[in-house]
Amino acid sequence: MFSKSKINEPGPASGDEAETAKAPKMSDSKASSDFTPSSPKAKPPASVLSADLNITGNIKTTGDINIEGNVEGDIRAHLLTVGEGATVKGECIADDVVVNGRVVGKVRGLKVRLTATARVEGDIIHKTIAIESGAHFEGSVQRQEDPLNGTKGAPVTPSASTSPAPSPSAPKPAEAKAQ
């Protein structure tokens, strides 16, 4: 009995250890294949262009991007954040656009937000827009169901043809808020 109990105790324990040693390897390979599909689903962190960076050229990403420096060129992203000290000279196209700094050019987005420190010189084409008090905006505002598909929706601008006439006047931001 002692030998059987000793065999049963160490035997299954060593057998369990051997099985568990083998099992994690098998589960690791299965787990790695399980984690491979979940890796693309995980959202990568936003790309940050630092304040001392100057870029001349277009930027295109399917992810998020934070601009803190200066960009001369068009930007296309999922979420575009223009930092308070940043300047973008070009067209900004994104699902979500948050402007804290300066943009000289057209802004296209499903959701466009101009914070109190924003300075935008150009037209904004949006699905929804928010302009905080203190934001500086010179241009026209146009709502479209699909603002990301550029020129196809632009010719339908009866309000845009009305907007450029009042654009020299100062109460543009009030008109933009009313729309």
If you average the pLDDT, what whole number results? Answer: 76
- Category from helices, strands and their pairing: alpha/beta
> How large is the share of residues in beta strands?
25-35%
Number of helices: 5
Count the strands? Answer: 14
Number of domains: 2
Helix and strand sequence: HHEEEEEEEEEEEEEEHHH
Largest sheet: 8 strands, parallel
- Through-space gap between termini: 90 Å
Instruction: Specify Rg, calculated over alpha carbons.
Output: 28 Å
Q: Unreliable runs, pLDDT <50, ≥5 residues?
A: 14-33, 152-179
| Shape, principal axes of CA atoms | globular
Helix content: 25-40%
Q: Can you put this structure into words, describing what you see?
A:
By secondary structure, this protein is of the alpha/beta class. The protein folds into two domains: 1-28; 47-149 and 173-178, no CATH class. Helices cover 31% and strands 35% of the residues. It contains five helices and 14 strands. Strands 1, 3, 4, 6, 8, 10, 12 and 14 form an eight-stranded parallel β-sheet that branches. It is globular. The N and C termini lie far apart (90 Å). The model is unreliable at 14-33 and 152-179 (pLDDT under 50).
